[in-house]
Design goal:
Helices cover 26% and strands 19% of the residues. By secondary structure, the chain is of the alpha/beta class. The chain folds into 3 domains: 276 residues, Glycoside hydrolase, family 3, N-terminal domain (TIM Barrel, Alpha-Beta Barrel), CATH 3.20.20; 247 residues, Rossmann fold, CATH 3.40.50; 116 residues, Sandwich (Immunoglobulin-like), CATH 2.60.40.10. Strands 12-17-16-15-13-14 form a 6-stranded mixed sheet, with helices on both faces. It has a 5-stranded mixed sheet with strand order 20-28-27-22-23, with no helix packed on it. A 4-stranded mixed sheet has the order 10-9-7-18, with no helix packed on it. The longest helix has 19 residues. Bound molecules: beta-D-glucopyranose. The site of beta-D-glucopyranose has 6 residues, from loops.
């Protein structure tokens, strides 16, 4: 802003700018800004030179349908990002997506999706991060930081407790206060505290009978007053349609209704509500302020940064593809590796087979799997990645006989080893998925079966019968039932959905250029009935007649439940094998008496004692020895990932936040600091924690 008299640049604080802009708008203009002009943008106010604010999906890249059919980098599914346990990759992915949002002429990315993975069957698990609020919020926060580092607004979604898709627009999540705050809101709270997101999306579902989009307690009391959120709240697409109406949404703190076909905050209805004194003009200002704040934060008023008129049809950016490849490489989790079956040494091989329904499947068609569908300029399938790798090897190695690829089932007995690539699918277009049903990873519906299809299970048995040297490579965005065939194969590699560079990343892992270093961000049960969300129909998918889903497991989501009831999972949370071996030693703690001012810092040394480049994730879990309330047996409260060459050693450091010792008290309606004895468990998965340090926390 220029001060004409003194001729100096005066940049008033954000809230002052908001008030100035607000004072320039007429009532009708204000009303127009509370809802979408179309599917992805808000109305412009040409009289004062305010352009439209544009949004696009996320979270796997800039989506095709919301970026004028833009071809954009397709990153791995975000459950895979969380499996990297490498925060830096989240920042880099956020930053790369943000650059593409800008080039697409939009101002906000509808991402990250941070809903907790409560059940292996939720159709959108692939777009979320973890079953654990600490891990999920660490990645959520770094994604937000990356996105906003380029001046693009993040939109953390879906607030809150939208952990399944069945009847998502009608269902009420029945949840107790402690669980809501200690688990589900804690996830959002940490993201807000750590990264200050400029936007949040209110979910479709009801929480204890009240829709998120009109939930005054959640949007106003919790989000703004308790958590200090300063951005705007947008409805999920169409979510306000099911609410009680204008007054309810506006007073609750909803700031923007999307998209234009959603018919709650229409000018006609708002004017009627004003006339009938259901709302006042100051309620309109109250609803609009956060939106104006976002307009300033993204620089909407001097929108020179946004190349609205020169939107590239295709973004084919090697630096972004490189980020996608690194995420894919670090996300893959080696679940089983009998007698070091992997990696394959090409010098010993003559023929390698690659078969299976996901071996050559290209993911990334418009709307495939729902709103996250980013369509890439090219897509390297597992088969293409392996073939290219072998061809390069053949050229360089110049062996007397070239290695051959077999892709016909009938010939697999001739191969030295078989890569059997199977798993789940996104189905087709989301709308078709909803109508016809798809037992896969898709928005709009949940999976019906935990097991792979009968056809795929038969294929595993038939393949192994013909050639026992078979690795199963799983392409799936959720846990599947592996226990049914776990004993039949020597190796299992979980590759999630590895994105456009996935085939290249897979080949590098399979042939040992680097070790798998992914760790599970979710628990894999042996049987679905062992899982906390699957204790009855009422707990998942819910009592569909009454339209209620009961979170009866309370705070015992994921591994917390397996620990509490001493159930052995097939693969525990935090688990993942490597080709190399590590030695962890000299674990120490800066102070065994911890206070608010002096947080706990764990230090130690890690050495790569094996033969491959690899990384280990050191995890810290906190256990309360005595407590006034029931506590989860242990909770993840810190981690670090360290890459090491063979023979290399490094020191590591993990800080445990003061917050880690708190619990949520229903009596006091807030988090409580509880002085006393705690144990810090340190190791490489939630069930492999060889080190422990006693801590006393005092209220000093
Ligand atoms: C999804 C959101 C998405 C929005 C816009 C909704 O159906 O739940 O995640 O951002 O559509 O596509």
């Amino acid at each position: 802003m220029k001060d004409d008299h003194n001729n100096f640049e005066y940049n008033p604080p954000l809230d002052e700018q908001v008030e100035i802009l607000l004072s320039k708008l007429t009532l009708n203009e204000k009303i127009q800004l509370l809802r979408g002009k179309d599917f992805w943008t808000t109305n412009s106010i040409d009289r004062i030179g305010l352009p439209s604010f544009g949004m696009t999906d996320g979270p796997l890249g800039v989506a095709y349908h919301s970026s004028k059919k833009g071809i954009r980098t397709r990153f791995p599914a975000t459950i895979g990002l969380a499996a990297t346990w490498n925060r830096d990759l989240a920042f880099q992915m956020g930053k790369a997506m943000s650059e593409e949002v800008k080039l697409s002429g939009r101002h906000q990315l509808l991402a990250p999706g941070i809903n907790l993975i409560r059940s292996p069957l939720c159709g959108r698990n692939f777009e979320y991060l973890s079953e654990d609020p600490f891990l999920s919020s660490e990645f959520g926060a770094d994604l937000v930081k990356g996105i906003q580092s380029e001046g693009i607004a993040a939109c953390v979604k879906h607030f809150v407790a939208n952990n399944s898709e069945t009847k998502r627009m009608k269902i009420s999540v029945e949840i107790d206060e402690r669980t809501l705050f200690e688990i589900y809101i804690r996830n959002f709270r940490r993201v807000i505290e750590k990264s200050d997101p400029w936007g949040i999306m209110a979910s479709y579902n009801k929480i204890n009978g009240v829709y998120a989009a009109e939930n005054q307690f959640l949007l106003q009391t919790v989000l703004r007053e308790q958590l200090g959120f300063t951005g705007h709240v947008v409805s999920d697409w169409g979510a306000a349609n099911w609410t009680k109406g204008v007054a309810s949404c506006i007073k609750a703190g909803l700031n923007l209704e999307m998209p234009s076909w959603s018919k709650t905050l229409t000018p006609k209805k708002i004017l009627k509500a004003l006339k009938e004194n259901e709302i006042s003009q100051s309620d309109i200002d109250f609803a609009l302020r956060p939106m104006l704040r976002t307009f300033f934060r993204v620089g909407l008023l001097n929108d020179k940064n946004f190349l609205m008129n020169r939107i590239p049809k295709v973004i084919d950016d090697p630096s972004h593809q490189n980020v996608a490849q690194r995420i894919a490489e670090e996300s893959m989790v080696l679940l089983k590796n009998e007698n070091n079956f992997l990696p394959f040494s090409l010098s010993d091989m003559k023929k390698i087979a690659i078969i299976g329904p996901n071996a050559n499947k290209k993911f990334g068609k418009p709307f495939q799997g729902g709103s996250s569908a980013a369509v890439p300029p090219f897509f390297i399938t597992p088969k293409e990645g392996i073939i290219k790798y072998i061809n390069n090897y053949n050229k360089k190695a110049k062996k007397s006989e070239e290695i051959k690829i077999i892709d016909k089932f009938d010939k697999i007995d001739e191969a030295d080893a078989v890569l059997l690539v199977l798993g789940l699918d996104h189905g087709g277009n989301m709308f078709r998925n909803i109508i016809f049903g798809v037992d896969g990873d898709t928005e709009g519906s949940d999976r019906k079966n935990f097991a792979l299809s009968e056809k795929q299970e038969n294929l595993i048995h038939d393949t192994v019968a013909k050639n026992p040297n078979t690795v199963v490579v799983l392409i799936a965005g959720s846990p599947v039932d592996i226990f049914r065939w776990y004993d039949d194969v020597p190796a299992i590699l979980n590759a999630w959905y590895p994105g456009m560079m996935g085939g290249k990343a897979l080949a590098r892992i399979i042939f040992g250029e680097l070790s798998p270093s992914g760790k599970l961000p979710v628990t894999y049960p042996k049987y679905l009935k062992d899982h906390p969300a699957h204790q009855s129909q009422n707990t998942f998918p819910g009592d569909l007649k009454a339209k209620k889903i009961y979170y009866n497991e309370g705070i015992y989501i994921g591994y917390r439940y397996f620990d509490k009831y001493s159930i052995d999972p097939l693969f525990p949370f935090g688990y993942g094998l490597s080709y190399t071996t590590f030695s962890i030693r000299d674990i120490s703690c800066n102070n065994e008496i911890c206070t608010k001012e002096k947080p706990v810092v764990i230090k130690g040394t890690i050495e790569n004692t094996g033969k491959y480049l690899g990384a280990e994730v050191i995890q810290v879990y906190v256990k309360a020895i005595h407590s006034n309330v029931e506590r989860a047996p242990k909770e993840l409260q810190g981690f670090t990932k360290i890459w090491l060459n063979p023979g290399e050693q490094k020191e590591f450091r993990i800080e445990v936040e003061f917050d880690s010792f708190k619990y949520y008290s229903e009596e006091k309606h807030s988090f409580i600091e509880e002085p006393g004895e705690y144990t810090l468990w340190i190791g490489t998965s939630s069930r492999n924690l060889p080190f422990s340090i006693p801590i006393r926390y005092i209220n000093a």
